[in-house]
Structure formats: C-alpha cells, structure tokens
Amino acid sequence: MIKHNILALDASTEALSLVLHYQGQTFHHFEECPQQHSQKILPLIDELLAKAQCKLTDLDVIGFGQGPGSFTGVRISVAIAQGLAYAARLPLVGVSTLQMMAQQAFEQDQASDVFSAIDARMGEIYYAHYKADDNGLMLLVDEEQVIKPELLTLPETTAAAVGTGWQTYPALVTDLANVSLNENILLPDAKYMLASVATAYAHGDTVTAANAQPKYVRDTVTWKKLPGRE
Asked: Crossing angle for the helix pair 71-88 and 37-52, nearest 10 degrees?
C-alpha cells in the first residue's frame, strides 16, 4: 500500500510513460511514441494533475527513469524531472529502466527472478538480473551492463526474461529450459516505478534536483546517433 503522493515519469526508450499516485488513486499513461517525448510529456503531466485535481506542490516526491536507454530519452527524463522538482521544491528518486521491467514482471506475474534486457542498438543489449526481496521489491544482482549478446552468460536459475533485448536476440533464451520469455513486457513503464520511489522516499534515499543524474551504462563517447533513432 503506497501512502505517499508520487509523480513518476520515464522517456528513456521508445515508450513514454507517466503515473500519478495521489491520495490513494493512481492515474497512468503509457504509449510508444518515438521522437515525440519532448513534445508530449509536459501536456500529459498537466493532464494527469488535472484528473487528480492536484498541484505539483501537493506531492511528496517525483520519480524519473534514469536509464539505460536512448541518450536523448534519458536526458529528457532527467531534465523534465529536474525542472518539476525545482519548481515545486520536491525531492527526486531515479529508477533504472531495467528494474522497472523486472518490477512489472513481479507485480503482474509474481516472477521473483528476472533477466531484463533492452536493445541497445549497435549489436549490444543493456542487461541486468533482478531478484525480489521480502517486501516484493526487485533488487539488482551484480550490476547493469551493456554487452554484446554473444558474450552474455545467463545464471543457471529459473527466471523470467523481459524487454526488447530478448525480442531482438531471441536465440539467447528460447533454448533455455530455465528461462521463460515474457513477450508482454518489452519496454519500461513508469507505473512500476511507484514501489521503488515510495520505498526510497520512506528511507530518505532521495536527491535534490541539482544532484539528479542519468545512468547511461554505455560510455557516451562511444555512442553514435543512428538514423531514425533518438
């Protein structure tokens, strides 16, 4: 049961998602709209606030998708969250896009062991392994990484696989008896940031707008903008 009033947003991938949890009610938006995030995100935030009949200053905390994902999308997520936090003097919590998908697998399907992967382009994937703790929060095992699919070795544990990384490179998991591919969870959704943001806020694990940081995983120096991609 989430007691805090939270706005969370993510624009790190092709998906744009927002969720507002206010006085026990949840208002949610999710759509795939590549290269339209910056035009749509602020009007959608206004729309959610209007539906909830609240103002930014009525909230306790703002969550944002900190990546990994497209560099442009990650920057949009961080910049919008910073702007809102400055305006309303609210603390921020950054949440991994890979963790969001793992959290969704747990909340929807009770998957307590999850391999998350996002197609990172350039023949690579963003990958991380998550396990649920006793409170149902998905926690990172080892570290998030960007890796060529042929170099990835998955742990020999029974797990669900979520994200576009497996859709792009299905051979990585289709032959593994211990891995079940969930094709319904391909991109991160801010709705599944709520548990992480609420937990972090309750423990005082927040940052100021000035200290909000993206998590690219891939070194920005090595990145090349691809035609038609953010």
From this structure: 40
CA 98 to chain centre: 6
Task: Read off the pLDDT of residues 105-144 as tens digits, 9 standing for 90 and up.
Answer: 999 999 999 999 999 999 999 999 999 999 999 999 999 9
Residues in the chain: 230
Query: Kind and range of the H or E element at 204?
Result: none
**230: amino acid identity, one letter:** E
Classify burial at 109, counting beta carbons within 10 Å of its beta carbon; exposed 0-12, middle 13-18, buried 19 or more.
Answer: middle
- Residue 86: its H or E element: helix 71-88
How many Cβ atoms sit within 10 Å of the Cβ of residue 27? 18
SS3 155: coil
- Are the C-beta atoms of 125 and 147 separated by less than 8 Å? yes
- pTM > 0.90: yes
Q: State the Cα–Cα distance between residues 68 and 13, nearest whole angstrom.
A: 8
